Amino acid sequence: MNTLVIAEHDNSQLKPATLNTVGAATKLDGEIHILVAGENCDTVIQSAAKITGITKVLAVDSENYTHALAENMALLVTEIADNYSHILTPATTTGKNFMPRIAALLDVAQISDITGIESIDTFIRPVYAGNALATVKSSDSIKLITVRGTAFEPAITDNNNAEIQTIESGDNFAQSQFESHQLTLSERPELTSAQVVISGGRGMGNGENFALLEAIADKLNGAIGASRAAVDAGYVPNDYQVGQTGKIVAPDLYIAVGISGAIQHLAGMKESKVIVAINKDEDAPIFQVADYGLVADLFDVLPELTELL
Amino acid sequence: MANYKTPLRDMRFVYNELLDPEQIQALPGFEEISSDLVEALLEESARFCEEQLQPLNRSGDEEGCHFDNGNVTTPEGFKEAYNGFCEIGLNSLTSDPEYGGQGLPRSVATFAEEAMCGANFSFSLYPGLTAGAIHSIELYGSDELKKTFLPNMVDGSWSGSMCLTEPHCGTDLGLCRTKAIPQDDNSYLLSGTKMFITAGEHDLTDNIIHLVLARTPDAPDGIKGISLFIVPKISVTKDGSLGEANGVSCGSIEHKMGIHASATCVMNFDNAKGFLVGNLNKGMEAMFVMMNNARLGVGIQGLGVAEASYQGAVEYARDRLQGRALTGVKNPDEKADPILVHPDVRRMLLTQRALIEGNRALAAWVAFELDVSHNHPDEKRRKQANDFIVLMTPVVKSFMTDCGSEVSNIGMQVLGGHGYIRENGMEQYVRDARIAQIYEGTNGIQALDLLGRKMPEHFGRNMRPFFHAVRNYIYAKEMNYELKDFLIPLAKAFGRLQKITAVLAQRGMKNPDEIGTASSDYLRMLALVALAHQWARMAEIGMQKNKGDDGVFYQAKIDTARFYFERILPQTGALFATMMAGAKSTMSFNDDAF
Amino acid sequence: MKILVAVKRVVDYNVKIRVNADNSAVDLANVKMSINPFDEIAVEEAIRIKEANKADEIIVVSIGPKENQETIRSALALGADRGLLMQTDEETQPLAVAKILKYVVEAESPDLVILGKQAIDDDSNQTGQMLSALMNWPQGTFASKIDLMDNEVNVTREIDGGLETIRLKLPAVITTDLRLNEPRYAKLPNIMKAKKKPLDIQQVSETGIDIKPRLTTIKVTEPAQRSAGIKVSSVTELVEKLRNEAKVI
Ligand SMILES: Cc1cc2nc3c(=O)[nH]c(=O)nc-3n(C[C@H](O)[C@H](O)[C@H](O)COP(=O)(O)OP(=O)(O)OC[C@H]3O[C@@H](n4cnc5c(N)ncnc54)[C@H](O)[C@@H]3O)c2cc1C
């Protein structure tokens, strides 16, 4: 049977994690369809149709989906779920929000945050903050899966022209409603898909000092991340957090600055290709996972690094 | 960097398996203290100490207290930590519920105190001194004094201090000169200077309640003329609110070897209004009763620091790669083996461990008997418990603080040069631990108290509960072949102790210097036998459980016991010989030749 | 206003777990267990709501073996009013947990259910969403702020791009994120009092709820360890290595 990927987007752009999810879907059997539910999201629908491997785009344009509220997403997806053996979506805050709701309505389990596909019913997923990997087999007729983007190669997006099928909007769930959002505006690449991530921890001392990281991120076209300690201390907003319960990143280069390296943080970045740690405490656990460690005061190192890049 | 974790597993073992939780629960007043409640209380206490007190240990040491024109400020973070500490009730574990305390058994509170001292020794002194002051008022204060002072002291909004020492009067409190002049309203005006007063002045609380030893104008000379007074820093009005400042001021704070975050103050009393606690001229009696509790507390300080040092040493010994094992490479992937493989390092770690766990067990026994002495329904049993405590108080104070020093020094040694520098936190334990051998009665004085007073008192009655317990244990287990490695050396050391006790009692009657010379050695020997008794019991339990759940823990008990019996208890032989040699070489030495 | 809080007993977050020898599971023998940190935040939030006089009763429910009573007691010590253990020794996966919670919700009729957003053992992040689906209630997941009004609640959620605020009609389900609050320490007297608070026990087997696992764990393995690399001595050396050795810049 076929696989449905639920696209993540902001009504104007497809989020990169969607491509990794399609990448994961190609490891399953059957056709891959993609659902784009949003409002005034035509550009997203068009780019979804271009993704290699997609045979059909299900498009629904309605104010019910402007903010991808879980309740409405669930009502919509349960309508079409029967046509699929697998439904996949990125394990982002959006996907994690609506997917279990769909699962419960369909009376099936959800398989969270998979990092590997063994067969059409057997998957690998990290547990205990990534300190163990569980291989699980699902006995449900429909497999609902959230996909860890960093674990799968993204699908390519230029050479396809999939059929676009407009579908009916589902019902509106009246008991919940979007009020407002405060999005962190940034010109930088998105944390979870950037090639380079530079993260600061408690050692940064305050929020202003993150400017030191920005200077380097500018040169490397990197994204900025943070440890939980730095977020809790209010240096940077919550969406910078990398870790077990924050964002999972796996860039080509991860630079950890003033981060001690609690297991919860390591869980979010240890799949990075190259890890650099800068910390003045030579016993900091972060050095145990770093390819290159520099024991030094970050306030000396960062300006020099900016200079040299 | 050292990172203290409360040894909850071992505490649970001591409480549930070495003590008898049901016996504690059977004491009137402790009916609700079930073993799972104790577990929950200790876990939360431990969490607070580890998460809130420990992070301030190093910074408090570096920063120290500040003195500015009579005002003392504690290091950064202490005030917040103190507030949190009182909020959850850690300051009033054993205080009377009538005044807002938790009314917990001492045998439970002791573990929480250990966690406080292990996490932050200096911090623990602020609530520690308050607890001492509360205890004195509970025992000897009039109802009015109790009503005026206890509720605020028990909830932590006021703290306490104990003002005994004066510049010319330390051990010999009979030299006390502070004057107390009676007034018409039944109060007294106190004048004089006290020094070395822990928590005499600080910024943690709104008021400080000083308990002050002083002398009324026509009091007899010496120790028999000393009375105890309550002197608040700020006077308390009839309705219980704070009134005017009393004539109490802090003259300076000391710069010292360790416990930098604890303010050690010179306190000046200048016509300060005070109130008599207990009877006139009976101040020392009041002190002595209070001391049994306080001295166990000081022993626990030694234990807490020792444990912290041990943990730091073990962690380092696992990680530090240096040299190769004598018997061949243990760690082929690296250029050197962890120092844990070296016999001498193992000797150090096992010595630490054997002394720590032995002391924890002994302290629990003493704490339990303290509970019995207060709460047991049977007067005879209470008396017997009291005899035991009277004997063991100088032992736990002195031996456990000696071990605190010894063990933290060993801990530093395990780290080599990295122990001596400040960065790793190990030298702080050495500096902090040292004071506990000095204050609350020097360890030398404790030993004298044991051998010169406690032993002969009531024709040796105080000795009986302890000696009988050890003897009965040996008799009861004699036939247990499995225990022979422990019982035989225990019986041998116990025999030596009995023998030297008799010898010294005899010699002491002829020449008191025989007692004075032998006392420190005698105290150590008695303590080593007491630990051997505990270690035999622990090994016995270990043998019953080392095959089951958590067998590793129980096997380690047996193995540590073995180390104790083979490599520490034999010290009693040397001590025996030393004492047998008598006082002559010590006392006949020409004073001018020193 | 009545609040139901669900708490799970999990391996303490400080414990470094190990996979057992036959690769069938994580080794849990003699491992320290604690309340799931996100659930502790949920309990704290409920207590704060009650302290602000916006709720009258807090019920804490846990699902699992009899040891979970300790977890419930610790929530009672923080300030919850009564506890309920839905006892079972079987494995309960999120869908089963949600079904059991639905059963409890139907019996207790709370106005608000608060749960942690995920348990730090299985890292599933599903139960709250599933429960609200089964109840057909609105959901506010990953909450960093909860603003309770008469019949509605505003929930500020931590999302990938920042924060989002949604408005839910009560009754509703909320799951907590890290920055919602900082849980207090239990006061020692309250730990003692918690012993006397009511704690009911019901057997899951007697409810007729189907809790059969839908996922079978075939094996559990340890992830490939990353080995420590090298220490560089200067920024120049670092940049040189990144350029010429790692070739990532
Ligand atoms: C950091 C710190 C905190 C303190 N906190 C307090 C406090 O809160 N309240 C308080 O009142 N005091 C406090 N003290 C004082 C402390 O209790 C005394 O220092 C201690 O009792 C010893 O008194 P001393 O220093 O005058 O020594 P001394 O009494 O002069 O003794 C010097 C030496 O002689 C020995 N010695 C003295 N007399 C005899 C004897 N008869 N037989 C055998 N040996 C003897 C002693 O053992 C010691 O080795 C504190 C001291 C310090 C350093």
Comma- or semicolon-separated keywords:
heterotrimer; A: 309 residues; alpha/beta; Rossmann fold; 7-stranded parallel sheet; 5-stranded parallel sheet; 25% helix; B: 594 residues; alpha+beta; 7-stranded mixed sheet; two-stranded antiparallel sheet; 11% strand; binds flavin-adenine dinucleotide
Q: How do the strands line up in the largest sheet of chain A?
A: 5-9-4-1-2-3-10
Distance between the termini of chain A: 51 Å
Compute the number of structural domains of chain A: 2
How much helix is in the residues of chain A? 10-25%
Helix content of chain C: 25-40%
Q: Mind telling me the CATH superfamily name of the largest domain in chain A?
A: HUPs
Number of strands of chain A: 16
How large, in whole angstroms, is the Cα Rg of chain C?
21 Å
In short:
The complex is a heterotrimer of chains A (309), B (594) and C (249). Chain A is α/β, with parallel strands linked by helices.
Structural commentary:
The complex is a heterotrimer of chains A (309), B (594) and C (249). Chain A is an alpha/beta fold. Chain A has 2 domains: 2-166, HUPs (Rossmann fold), CATH 3.40.50.620; 191-308, Rossmann fold (3-Layer(aba) Sandwich), CATH 3.40.50. Chain A is built from 8 helices and 16 strands. Chain A has a 7-stranded parallel beta sheet with strand order 5-9-4-1-2-3-10, with helices on both faces. Chain A has a 5-stranded parallel beta sheet with strand order 13-12-14-15-16. In chain A, helix 3 (70-80) packs across helix 4 and helix 5 packs parallel to helix 8. Chain B has a domain at 457-586. Chain B is built from 21 helices and 11 strands. In chain B, strands 3, 4, 5, 6, 7, 10 and 11 form a 7-stranded mixed beta sheet that branches. With 249 residues, chain C is of the alpha/beta class. Chain C has helices spanning 37-51, 68-78, 94-108, 127-135, 188-194, 235-244; strands at 2-7, 9-11, 33-35, 57-64, 82-87, 112-116, 139-148, 152-159, 162-169, 172-176, 199-203, 215-221, 230-232. Chain C has a 9-stranded mixed beta sheet, sandwiched between helices. In chain C, helix 2 links the parallel strand 4 and strand 5 (82-87). The radius of gyration of chain C is 21 Å and the shape is globular. The chains are: A alpha/beta (309), B alpha+beta (594), C alpha/beta (249). The interface between B and C is medium-sized, with 19 and 15 residues. Strand 16 of chain A pairs parallel with strand 13 (230-232) of chain C. Bound molecules: flavin-adenine dinucleotide. Flavin-adenine dinucleotide binds at residues 162-165, 170-171, 196-198, 256, 264, 435, 438-442, 444-445, 448 of chain B.
